[in-house]
Specification:
This protein has 211 residues and is mainly α. 78% of the residues lie in helices and 0% in strands.
Length: 211
């Protein structure tokens, strides 16, 4: 059992490591608004990872069929959502919420739900988690008593990664001028916008040439 819990912890960490729009969002929140805002966004990513882990365990065949049947809609709709979030990151002023050094940095549930929406817009992450389950040799059935401990350890691994990630980058915010942070914030938003445009473009190309 302890080995399975350790594997779940490693799966949660590995599923969070790839650099994508959520990582960029957490990075932007950590640099512009501090550790708590970054970690709150990371918890949103943790929730999505846990949801996808449940699907990967018990409903992969259905999820695979659904994603294949609605692939274009998911790409275009998800891409539009990612573009809108990227525009919000790039063009808003992230420093109006920043406090003085002796005050607590601002954070809100908005940070959490931004990450949740961004994570749901990328259902392909299900297959990443499924591949990790296969790599670590974990096969479960709904009635398996190991389900709850493994899911909890997976969530814990994901939360631990985002806690350390947001904490590490929030330390750097003191070393940057506000103008530098502003440009980093805009660059992060532009990268997310480009990812969203790529998703929409792929979906549109599929409509034009495959249907």
């Amino acid at each position: 059992m302890m080995l399975d819990i350790l594997k779940g912890l490693l799966i949660g960490i590995c599923a969070s490591v790839p650099l994508g729009p959520i990582a960029i969002l957490v990075l932007q929140k950590s640099l512009s608004e501090g550790h708590r805002a970054g970690f709150m966004a990371g918890l949103g990513a943790c929730l999505v990872d846990t949801l996808y882990a449940v699907i990967a365990m018990f409903a992969l065949a259905f999820a695979e069929s659904f994603i294949e049947d609605h692939r274009i809609l998911i790409m275009v709709g998800g891409g539009i959502i990612v573009i809108l979030l990227g525009c919000s990151m790039a063009f808003k002023d992230p420093f109006r919420k920043m406090k003085e050094e002796h005050q607590t940095p601002s954070y809100s549930l908005k940070d959490f739900f931004q990450a949740v929406i961004m994570g749901i817009s990328n259902p392909g992450a299900i297959f990443v988690i499924f591949a990790l389950f296969a790599f670590f040799g974990i096969q479960l059935e709904p009635h398996d008593f190991r389900v709850a401990p493994i899911l909890l350890s997976l969530s814990g691994g994901s939360a631990l990664y985002w806690f350390l990630f947001s904490w590490a980058f929030s330390r750097f915010r003191k070393n940057f001028k506000l103008s530098t942070l502003l440009w980093l914030n805009r660059a992060a938003g532009v990268i997310v916008i480009i990812i969203g445009i790529a998703l929409v473009a792929e979906g549109v190309l599929d409509i034009l040439f495959l249907r």
